[in-house]
Amino acid sequence: MQLAIRDESPAIGISTRILRALGVTLGLGVAGTSLGAILGGGLFAALSVVINNSGCVQISPGYAFLAGGTLGGGFGGIALPLAAWTLPRVAIGRIVAATALGAIAGGTAGFVLTNPDFSAVVLGSLIGFGLATSLVGFRSAASANSTATSTEEDM
Questions:
Q1: Could you give the number of structural domains in the chain?
Q2: pTM attached to this predicted model
Q3: Residue ranges of the chain with pLDDT lower than 50?
Q4: 57 in Cβ contact with 51 (< 8 Å)
Q5: Is the residue at 111 inside a domain?
């Protein structure tokens, strides 16, 4: 006797695959929002301390954390699910780690390369996130190609 597994939710008639994809996307959005808020807030707060110590202007680290967290959370909630769905063969943990490091490195580079300007930090973070996503995708594709080539040579 076989158990029949239905591919539709009886209550609303939506495919289980669609519900699963929506759940994964929602989870990635929550993770991206949380991580983006923490990292963006932390980066802005740390940079505000550097600015305050340089004597240029006085920026409250609490305000900087709130502003950076809002920007980082909003961006992360959209960008992480997009990056994860764009790179289906890459582990989500690798995507999260690479894009987080890329955003932090890009934001820091934007700060260092310009006169203390938070808009450059935001732009640098966006560029760093994009470059990290591209790098992870290229490395995954190169790894898949080398694996396929070595498998073909072994035969």
A1: 1
A2: 0.77
A3: 1-5
A4: yes
A5: yes
